Amino acid sequence: KNMDVELEIPHYNVFSAVNSRSIGYVRRRNVSSTNPLSFIYSVYPNHSLVARLEKRKELRRHRGCVNTVNWSQCGNYLVSGSDDTQCCVWDMHSDGELSVCFPTGHTANIFCTRFMAESNNRKIITCAGDSEVRAFSIGEGATINTHVYTCHESRVKKLVTLDPNSFLSCSEDGTVRLFDLREGSQQGGAIVVNLSSTEINCIAMSGSTFCLACGDSLVRVYDIRSYGPAKSNISPFSCFAPEHLTHGPTAAYVTGIDISKNGKEILATYSRDNIFLFDIDENRVVQSIGTPADDFDHELYYVDSESDLDVYLGDEDEDDGSVDGNDDEDGEMTGEVLDEGEEAEATREVERERVWEGIGEIQQETENVNTTEKNTPEIVPNDSPSQEKPYHRQRYSGHCNVRTVKGVSFFGPEDNYVCSGSDDGRIFIWDKLTARLVNIMKGDSAVVNVISGHPFDPVLATSGIDSDIKIWEPIGESPKPLDDQEDIMAKNQELMQSTNSRMVSIVFLRRLLRQRLAGDETNNMDIFF
Question: Fewer Cβ within 10 Å of end Cβ, the chain: N or C?
Answer without folding.
Answer: N
